[in-house]
Amino acid sequence: MALEGYSIDLSPLLSGKGVRLVAGIPYYSGGVFPTPIHYLDALIIGAFPKLVENSLVIAFISIAIALGVGIPVAYILARVEIKGKTMIAYLLLALRTVSPFVVIIPLYITYSRIGLYDTYPGVSLAEDMLILSVVVWMLRGFFADIPKEVYDAASIFGNTEGQIFRRVILPMVIPGIVVTALFALVLIWNEFLIAVTLTGPATKTVAVGVWTGMTENQVNFKSVNWDDLNAAGTLAFVPAVAVMLAIRKYLAKGFSLGTAH
Question: What is the C-alpha separation between 179 and 250, in angstroms, rounded?
């Protein structure tokens, strides 16, 4: 057996014969043989680089669409006085609670018929169901965090609402947009149900590839090499954790302000 790609032999222990008493001291007869070869194999030889490429392409398209829609919607919900905007905001939040199982089968049937199955645009549009409401709520919080005096000062100089948005407010929330995009990237990177249902050999993501067992051509199955698979699992896990640790304080700010205004 192996633990996270580092050839740790637990078979004597699990067979019940691995621990003996030597001079009254428990002795384990297994072996630990640390080696980075399995990580190098996943990164250079195996399918992992292609899986990463697929995940990043899908994430880039999904996030671009979500930001294109979410930024103006979030600005309106935070700044413009319109009837029922609170209800709209909470409706978007409620959509986030809908189980993907409700839509995944209809999506699969529709995509198979119209040619979007196993394509980057098709998977990206489906992933937007996962991230769009989160993007809107986070950006709403960052827009709401800007003091009202900034809006008033911009209005004094005769700027229209569109000019205030483009010239004043948007540059101020760029850090919030970056944080939101990174959080959406983590959501898509870890998402499994949509990816495993709507991707095939051409667009298989990291989450699906690690689960199904990686092959060099991503098409044919082969006997599972647990060392390589564990190494790939670790490589898939580390980026998401690193991003979340880097943006954790900004996430709390975005979400808390989104509920406070």
Answer: 7
- Sign of the CA dihedral running 212, 218, 223, 224: negative
Decide: pTM greater than 0.85.
no
Residue 136, classified by CB atoms within 10 Å of its CB into exposed (0-12), middle (13-18) or buried (19+), is buried
pLDDT digits 0-9 by tens, 4-19: 455 555 544 444 454 5
Instruction: Assign domain 36-260 to its CATH superfamily.
Output: MetI-like (1.10.3720.10)
Cα–Cα dist 63/183, whole Å: 10
Contact 28, 19 (CB under 8 A): yes
Please give the sequence-ordered ranges of beta strands (E in DSSP) within the chain, or none if there are none: 8-9, 19-22, 25-28, 31-32
Query: Do the Cβ atoms of 188 and 100 come closer than 8 Å?
Result: no
Distances (CA, A) of 85 to 64, 93, 140, 152: 24, 12, 12, 21
